[in-house]
Request: fold
Amino acid sequence: MNNVVEISKDEHRLEAAGHWVLRMNEGLSSSQKTALESWLSEDTRNLDAFMEVAEVWDETACLARLAELFPKPRRRRLPQQRLALATAAVLVLAVFAASLFFTSNLSFPGFGSGPATATADGTQHFETAIGEHSTAILADGTVVILNTNSQIEVAYSDDARVVHLVRGEIHVEVVEDPRRPLSVVAGDRIVQAVGTAFSVEITQDQQIDLVVTEGLVVVGVRAPGMRRIVAPPVIAQSDDNTVAAGENLLMGADQEVATSVSAEEIEIKLSWREGSLIFQSEPLEQALAEVERYTTVKFVFVDENLKTRAVSGRYRAGDVDSLLVALRMNFNITHEIAEDGSVLLSSL
Reply:
């Protein structure tokens, strides 16, 4: 069992190293350089992982710049298992770099640039535009991925971690800290966790859609008049306020609907994290409403019967041209572009 955990940690470390290699290749700001120095210094295995990925990637320029930070970086022959992991990290990095078909901003600890801004009270603001997604690594290592057209405000104190979802959708991978539960405040709801992974979306009709992918969370109601970035109290766990991995809770003004979701359904629902949209026998009207979240293009049904046509497939978020080609080839649906730029859909 110990070996399994260690491999998982190696994979995580190598993935982080891969991101650093990519960022270094693009050029580091002074604050980013400081953050990299800090990450490399906190554990000798971080330096090893960085060198392994850089060597497999054959980034001699990265190694040269690394030598400026660490005068005597160690080169060593990689054991077969480590070589395989490093190679896998490089492949993931290559796919990641090649698949950035819409803007993605990465924010690592200590970065002064990226999608974050800060106010005088220390609150950080992260925001994405339509068609963008962004990964923010917070001060404690918690990872927050923002979907298209999303905004959050983040405030940490000695006894609380608060993420206010102003709009849009986020996926949160919480670093465990029993002393400071992390609360996501969305609308009039509070989703609270110590260490787990979950996604929260404010839907177009202002419902709160929660999906837990790992561990469990507790859900509470925000007190009327409570300022949105104030730390909520710790919510006591009970049978009727706990949502576990593999569960979906849709919270509206009048009711809450809880359902179980399979691993496949979670993959489909969260495919936006990889820049994809997956539909399985989805009504076309509903599928295109999801597509519209990632683009300014609007779809109009000239043929009303098309609204209920079931469509399936994996599409790139924001890539309307490829979608229209797929609709024509696979579903016999043609289109015209109106003067206002909207897409008029009709049957062939």
Q: What stands out?
A: The longest helix spans residues 2-26. The radius of gyration is 22 Å. The helical segments are 2-26, 30-42, 44-57, 60-69, 80-98, 263-269, 284-291, 320-331. The first strand starts at residue 104 and ends at 107.
